[in-house]
Amino acid sequence: MNISLHPIRKLFEVLSEMFRGRAVEYVSVELRELENVFALVLLGSFVGFPSPPTPIALRLLPYLAKELLVMQRISERLDDMLAEMAGIFEVT
Amino acid sequence: MKVYFFVGKGGVGKTTSAAAFSMLLASRGLRTLIVSLDPAHNLGDVFGIPLGEKPKQIVENLWGIEVDFDRAVQQHLKNLCDRIKDAYAYLRVLNLDRYIDTLRHAPGVEEYAALEKVVEFIKRSKDIDALVFDTPPTGLTVRMLALPFVNEVWLEKLLELRRAILERRKAIAKILKQELVAEIGGEKVKLPTEEEEDPVSKELRKMLNETREVINVLRNPSVTSIGLILNPETLPVLEAKRALETFRKLGLPTKFVIVNKVLRLSGSTPPELEARLEEQRKALEMIENEFRGLRIVYVPLLAREPRGIDALKEYAKHIEDLLEV
User: Is B151 in contact with B207 (CB distance < 8 Å)?
Assistant: First the structure.
């Protein structure tokens, strides 16, 4: 009995994983954009964006390794952004 | 403790009125410390006693300090540089201190240094009943007093943004039933999803609390009193009016106005002074209208510049009413 149910359980697991993946897709994009904004607001002075008073940015600096990577990632993938958005929203 | 700020355009008599007022407070038995934050010091000259960075007794119950503004700015920048060095040990090799002279011209540095000094004095002067600040000319003082409010807005917004990030991280981790991990410098690091475990949120929250502490002191009318010093001329009145508008917007308790150097003549008016007196009349009218609701005191133009303890005592008689504010 157990043996016959195994493929069905497997199918459910795959389906559930698929739905979960689909569910987080939009939240992930939102999260990434929020992280971009956060990095830009804090470290935007590099690109001429108004930044918070220096002591605020400076006190956060030791914890901003991830944000620095985010800034780097944005600049590296700048060209892909539109294509990526089009992919997510299924614009063909 | 009471904190007084004497604010006004350069040359209107801020230092003289602050000095005379501090003597009034001291004469009423209040242990008073007068601090000059004006980069162009003349507090010591007004008292006729050389002052420096360390409190010096002027009369009974009254001590005076002239803050070395350049040193305060250097110290502020040095503190910032030390923080950077703590975070990035390798910068020691670059000798960041060499760039302090350049950094001091960065926007906001002077205001920050001045505010740091004000906060330091408020925190440090526990055994003092009254703290009187003779401030730099209006522009810098207004920006300095506005700084905690600017910081509060930034910190609130950053914290809000950070919360939104953490909420989404939490949602993703919950749906995927796994921890979120990022690769930083080849190392896998778990991404925080709760405010309590996120060092950025914690630091933001800490800064926000510190900023609000300063704001609470500055906004508390039973602690802080701001006084505007002006002359009966159009420009100082307009500048004081703009400062008052800003202080009102920030919720800072502006309580009194000292109209200094009011020309009063006994007998007939010499024809060459008629136009001047007419201008003064208009300015005084403007003062009455613009600063309605504040305690206004008038100090006549004195025959001699009030310098030295005795002259200041004479001057203080004109502003005695301010003890009630």
Answer: yes
